[in-house]
Amino acid sequence: MGLKTVEGLTDFLRQCGGYAVIDGGLATELERHGADLNDPLWSAKCVISSPHLIRRVHLDYLEAGANIIISASYQATLQGFEAKGISKEEGEALLKRSVEIACEARNIYNDRAAKSSWDDLDNESNLKHKPILVAASVGSYGAYLADGSEYSGIYGDAIMVKTLKDFHRRRVQVLANSGADLIAFETTPNKMEAQAYAELLEEEVINIPAWFSFSSKDGTNVVSGDSVVECASIAESCKQVVGIGINCTPPRYIQGLIQSIRKATTGVAEEDFVSYVDKWCDAGASLVGGCCRTTPNTIRAISKLLSSKQVSQGLANIYVD
Ligand SMILES: [Zn+2]
Description:
Pfam families: S-methyl_trans. The chain has about 325 residues and is an alpha/beta fold. About 50% of the residues lie in helices and about 10% in strands.
């Protein structure tokens, strides 16, 4: 499944029935399966120590209804690997590996779906054939620093757009050639980093699309205090960007944030969480998934809710036609 263009995403969404489900939290699930994430590399550590656990969690999310799975590269940076004594070449191989693990999970899912459709057509637990995308995760500069600036967006006066571009450049190049369908820039904490991503995608002529996802603590601004509308405009101005969204943000703020982003453009994004999903879709979201502390159960509930929405929307479309 490729996704080379904005039209590619539109086709993908159509095949998904109008709304696509993104996976949920990775770190919590890895820990639940016994991984030890007490390390500055966080879930990236598992790419080295326990790739089978990452594959297991990706598969859990696919089985729970996800259409998009995000690689374990959020915290994986060449600079972070280097600090661990890992060479540039090995580091680049690990970045690629994080995406390959997600692709392997997709292959396993597809094989099982093909097999189960022959085994028993009426079985509820049957895996459905569905479109699946693999997104390569890119965390912010602050996520690499692991000093809290990931959640404040305050990098200090010495850090400029150029610093951030140089920091992200090689990782983005490697991930763009790893077999991923798109790049997911997640938990973007400020306008400057959005600008750096946008310039980098264009300068390096990155040939897969990207989405930018921002985090907010107040429902109006991203965590640094920059306006979410300005951040969304920067993303919108970059031709490789196919989605703009919100993650790592209290669910109660998301509807308003989607409406704000929608003004500049279109939006992405446990029972409590799921109760908001309908409103987010009504506000204009067509990609919905989970972030920290969400589980395959969250994603299962979202997937169920969105399928029922697809049915009623499908009927509405037929009626309109
Ligand atoms: Zn989060």
